[in-house]
Design goal:
Length: about 300
């Protein structure tokens, strides 16, 4: 088998929708990795911007570019996973970056992890319209109420396949939250690297606060309906008891309160409460509270 035929250790999947202005930066971030055994797959999710199309067409053959009709972020990631030649896959949005030691650190951790570990991730350093660091944790109870795992995380391809990939109906956001919740519900675990090796670009009008926050009410309702059994009181209490020793962010009473408020308050009022809480949280993190990833999809 030739060197070019050998499967790499990692496939880096970069969804791109009209994000040509970020491509050089994300490729530079990957070129700076201390771990080199990886391939790069850019999924052009139906870009309509001529500059982006031209940029992607000019990339060297070492970068595999796959063009498809627009299917949203979940659809782009699923395409990248299907095309990945490696067993370990890293989704990396085109406007984000990783520190030079990211791949070396996460791959080593995954190689040392038990087989039930489906994901390895790091803490986050914010950039762009926000500043500060965010701790991330894999907590099966917390995941019922909030996402504690970055979208950029090293994932076993077999786990992605076993749980059915990303939900392509979730085009407004939270697709990564729902994916990791499903992973936890299927009994898979995660490993946290307590270093901010993922650089998350916060851009005004992006997914995190610009798009997902106003849609939180219907997105979380969709998740609760999809995973109805997991949100029964007995299941919530059992998951809380079984995971009390893990580091987490959501207390039992806060989780139950959020669930009650989501059910009894008008959607508009509950949405305003969520937006206000997020603004306070991001202000405490010394960021502007106005952004999110610029990789948002129509």
């Amino acid at each position: 088998m030739s060197e070019t035929d050998r499967a790499p250790a990692v496939s880096v999947v970069v969804p791109c929708y009209n994000g040509g202005q970020y491509v050089d930066r994300v490729l530079a971030s990957l070129a700076g990795q201390t771990f080199h055994d990886f391939e790069i797959i850019i999924v052009d999710d139906g870009s309509t911007d001529a500059a982006t199309v031209e940029k992607l067409a000019s990339l060297p053959p070492s970068v595999r570019v796959i063009r498809q009709e627009n299917r949203g972020l979940s659809g782009a990631r699923n395409t990248g996973f299907r095309e990945a030649r490696a067993e370990l896959v890293l989704p990396l949005d085109c406007d984000d970056e990783i520190e030079p030691s990211f791949l070396a650190t996460t791959v080593n951790a995954m190689m040392a992890a038990p087989k039930n570990v489906g994901v390895v991730f790091t803490h986050i350093r914010l950039s762009g319209a926000a500043h500060g660091e965010l701790e991330r944790h894999f907590h099966p109870f917390d995941l019922l109420f909030a996402n504690g795992i970055p979208s950029c995380a090293l994932i076993r391809k077999r786990v992605w396949s076993a749980i059915g990939g990303y939900d392509e109906a979730m085009r407004e956001g939270y697709e990564d939250w729902e994916f990791f919740l499903r992973m936890a519900l299927r009994g898979y675990d995660g490993v946290e690297i307590a270093e901010p090796l993922f650089i998350y670009n916060m851009a005004s009008g992006g997914m995190l606060l610009g798009q997902s926050s106003p849609a939180h009410v219907r997105l979380w309702r969709y998740m609760r309906q999809k995973h109805r059994d997991a949100y029964r009181l007995s299941s919530i209490l059992r998951r809380w008891r079984n995971n009390r020793s893990r580091p987490g962010k959501v207390s039992l009473w806060k989780g139950l309160l959020a669930l009650v408020l989501a059910k009894v308050l008008p959607d508009a009022l509950f949405g305003r409460l969520v937006a206000a809480r997020r603004s306070r949280r991001f202000m405490r993190s010394n960021d502007l509270g106005t952004g999110g990833s610029a990789a948002a999809r129509p």
